[in-house]
């Protein structure tokens, strides 16, 4: 077929209204980086850097001795996410990218329950970051994937394999050693961390089983963050944070102000990088990188925030890191076996549900064919 015939065919489709530019997902860059053989590596590195940076920035913001406004901070960060997500969606439309942003009461109602759980998770996580050291909190949060695995086995009536049971027991043992040897342990810190893990699990389950597949990821992200802001701002008023926030914020140093706003931006960037990575490489690699980020997080938390850790504490942390890697490996192997048994392709993975869910509010993704095969929980991260 000649080039002129091809052009005539395209012109005919445009004239008939059947021509439509292919939807583009920012995570895959629409093939713009396909010429780079290192694109998967670049995507994974960006995802890891965003995850580490966000956790360190949140620790610095929420652990400040003279600036503790968790409700007001989360409200502002949620509004920042709404502005960034909606702005990116609107700006992309003139360039031919289809980004739905429907205002539907049904969508708002479906998002209400996971938004409540997610708000509770963010607030309890903020208090945990204030009262606990970053290395200890990083290891303690491994209870989240443990709880998710057990709950799935109960609700889906599926057994737990010996390999998975070994990984879970190793995680429990490592947490027991870490908690008992924490020289900076406070009751408020561990109560907050426990609430953070419980609400994290509840939020993930409400996302998986309570939201219809008809909604686009970006519109769920915008409305989810808006609901989060509406839930946290009244609480900020109730606890008296609004009255003193402005005066306290003005007195902060410029680097701290940059961290404050930067953590809000990083919440959107990490979801961008996560979906980019899952579109150009295997989900098991993304999950492995997500688990591996705990190692630099522990070290950075120890060095930057002058954390006191005993020898037994380091033993528990090392066991926790090893348990996380074993858990990730076993989970991916079992998922691979399930995919082989049903002979169906899958591009989703757990993506280290613990780290992803605690780092981002909801995903920033423009709908694309690749995303149709993602699980409900992953579409709304």
Characteristic key phrases:
381 residues; disordered C terminus; mainly alpha; 0% strand
Radius of gyration: 22 Å
Which parts are unreliable, with pLDDT below 50 for 5 consecutive residues or more?
1-7, 9-31, 343-381
The helix-and-strand class reads: mainly alpha
**Helix and strand element order:** HHHHHHHHHHHHHHHH
Report how far the terminal alpha carbons are from each other.
45 Å
How many helical stretches? Answer: 16
What gross morphology would you assign? globular
Specify the helix fraction band: over 70%
What's the mean pLDDT score?
Answer: 75
Largest sheet: none
Q: How many strand segments?
A: 0
Please tell me about this protein's structure:
This protein has 381 residues and is mostly helical. It is built from 16 helices and no strands. It has helices at residues 3-16, 39-62, 70-92, 105-131, 134-140, 143-155, 162-180, 187-210, 217-238, 241-250, 254-280, 283-292, 294-304, 311-342, 353-359, 376-379. Helix 3 crosses helix 11. The chain is globular and about 50 Å long. The chain starts with a helix and ends with a helix. The model is unreliable at 1-7, 9-31 and 343-381 (pLDDT under 50).
Write the layout of secondary structure elements.
Blueprint lengths: L2 H14 L22 H24 L7 H23 L12 H27 L2 H7 L2 H13 L6 H19 L6 H24 L6 H22 L2 H10 L3 H27 L2 H10 L1 H11 L6 H32 L10 H7 L16 H4 L2
Helix pairs in contact: 2-11, 2-12, 3-9, 3-11, 4-8, 4-9, 5-13, 6-8, 7-14, 12-14
